[in-house]
Amino acid sequence: MTNRVTGMAAATAAVLMLVGCAQAADQDRAVEKTQPGLTIAEAKRVAQGVEDSIVAKLPESMVASVDQRATGVLMRCGPDREYQWTGLTVVTLTESTSPESVIREVLEAYADDDELRPRDVTDSVGPAVQLLGPYNSGYIVDPRTNDSVNVASFSPCFDLSEGSSPSIEY
Q1: Which of 18, 91, 95, 137 fits a 20 to 30 Å CA distance from 152?
Q2: Tens of pLDDT, residues 82-97
Q3: pTM (2 decimals)?
Q4: Beta-carbon neighbour count of residue 66 at 10 Å?
Q5: pLDDT under 50: residue ranges of the chain
Q6: Quick one: how far is CA 102 from the chain centroid?
Q7: What is d(CA 154, CA 132) in angstroms, rounded to the nearest whole number?
């Protein structure tokens, strides 16, 4: 159990570092970093919709099951009340599919996409792909286990309305 918790903590830290790197590397994108008028519910809908789109680009022969988490948390993306909704979909792979082949598939599927720009972020920990989107949004596909991958989402950055708490699940 301790190894699993430690592994999950390390994976979360790696994802947060990748998002930070994406934001720094993406300075040439639109000047406006926060999507005007976006609500928590809309940010969640956008992020989960992109998670669904990423999974839909995988051949059916690769996917055994899909589990999209119903709730997520907010993560700060600016100095004031700027936040992103963060979510997760876990894709269990078929017996003949490796996480590495899924990473390659996602890189190829988004190679010419103008909205979500792919980056291979494979490192010593393993293979991963990051899709950089508008308003600091980002999506990361990386191995969860030998037979599953995570599709982590970070919605477009938005201004959290007064009265909304950044510390609860949505």
Answers
A1: 95
A2: 999 999 999 999 999 9
A3: 0.82
A4: 15
A5: 1-30
A6: 15
A7: 10
